[in-house]
Design goal:
Layout (H helix, E strand, L loop, with lengths): L15 H13 L5 E4 L9 H16 L3 E6 L11 H12 L8 E2 L4 H13 L3 E4 L3 H5 L31 E4 L5 E4 L7 E4 H5 L3 E3 L7 H11 L4 E5 L6 H10 L6 E5 L19 H6 L4 H10 L12 H7 L2 H8 L10
Parallel strand pairs: 1-2, 2-3, 9-10
Antiparallel strand pairs: 4-5, 5-8, 6-7
Helix pairs in contact: 1-7, 2-11, 7-8
Length: 334
């Protein structure tokens, strides 16, 4: 599977213990199917989150594999007190049991810092001082940020503060196509320069960016397939590029359809989409909620009541695979 074309990247030297940890994680992919659910503790899980959790849990159980739980809690200002505990309670109430201890990204800050230092020494990163206002001027229509145009790519690498402000750190992406194994199509593909660009791996405020933390953790945890919402498909190329820079292959991906309201709008925390609290206030118990989630995927008839274990016992991998095929817009295909 191709990951990146173009000139070879400079040699990367990770500490031996971290190199061994990453290699051991990747090796676990061959031992058993491993997937994960990775919510952020920014509020309660809405129905779309719960449905994705159920899909990935079903996949792991039908394959006799492992379902891991990771809390993506690096963006501290957005985290809400009590949100993590509520997430764990919701999953337990639904009968979605996870394997092993809960993994928290905040516990891996030292690992991310080591990876960033190695990437920087090898010339994979460069400092960027572009302001949000400048980048807003190159944004795509409707507020979607365009691919970074590389304003700072060839400037002298000044890593220290200027005018009291530190730079963000961007990945120097090699030219070519980024590819990965994608459920439901021969290959996921994004052109590096035109669809991904030089993404930020460390923000100017020092916070490790989503692409770096996610890529490192997929490797460390030995994830063989990432099951997540279709809205995250555009993020895949950047994470594949980070893994390639570290010298490791990416896992497979299954980007599942989002749950949308009657107007066709996706459910989101920001819009206050109803989570378990709202459903439970209507008198729904766990079997009724599992039935509702499964019926939305046409896995069971509407009005079904069954536990998560009863649902997995009634399904085949083929039936599950049918409802998990991604449906992407033409604009997302390269």
């Amino acid at each position: 599977m191709p990951v990146a074309a173009g000139a070879p990247a400079p040699a990367l030297r990770l500490p031996h213990h971290l190199q061994a940890q990453l290699a051991q994680g990747v090796g676990r992919r061959c031992q058993a199917y491993r997937t994960r659910f990775a919510p952020s503790p920014t509020g309660p899980l809405h129905r779309g989150n719960l449905r994705t959790a159920l899909l990935s849990w079903l996949e792991a159980r039908l394959r006799g594999g492992e379902w891991l739980l990771r809390i993506d809690d690096l963006d501290t200002p957005r985290n809400r007190l009590g949100a993590e505990a509520a997430i764990l309670d919701d999953l337990r109430w639904l009968g979605l049991d996870w394997d092993g201890p809960v993994v928290r990204q905040s516990a891996h800050r030292g690992v991310y810092a080591t990876v960033l230092s190695a990437l920087r020494r090898a010339g994979h990163l460069y400092p960027c001082r572009c302001s949000r206002r400048l980048l807003a001027d190159v944004s795509a229509p409707h507020g979607a940020l365009a691919v970074y145009p590389g304003y700072c790519r060839d400037r002298a690498p000044l890593w220290g503060p200027q005018d009291g402000r530190l730079p963000s750190w961007r990945l120097r992406l090699q030219p070519g196509v980024l590819g990965w194994q994608e459920r439901g199509c021969p290959c996921g593909r994004q052109d590096g320069p035109t669809a991904v660009g030089d993404v930020v791996l460390r923000r100017a405020d020092g916070v490790v960016a989503y692409h770096l933390a996610t890529a490192v953790d997929e490797l460390l945890m030995g994830i063989s397939e990432v099951v997540r919402g279709d809205d995250l498909w555009p993020s895949t190329g950047a994470q594949v590029a980070v893994m390639a820079a570290l010298g490791f292959p990416a896992p497979a991906y299954a980007h599942v359809p989002l749950w949308r309201d009657p107007r066709g709008e996706r459910l989101s925390k920001r819009e206050g989409a109803e989570g378990l609290a709202g459903l439970r206030s209507l008198g729904l118990d766990a079997p009724a909620v599992i039935g509702c989630l499964a019926a939305s995927l046409e896995l069971v008839p509407a009005g079904s009541r069954l536990s998560a274990r009863e649902l997995v016992a009634s399904l085949s991998l083929q039936a599950l695979d049918t409802c998990m095929h991604p449906k992407r817009a033409e604009g997302e295909k390269v």
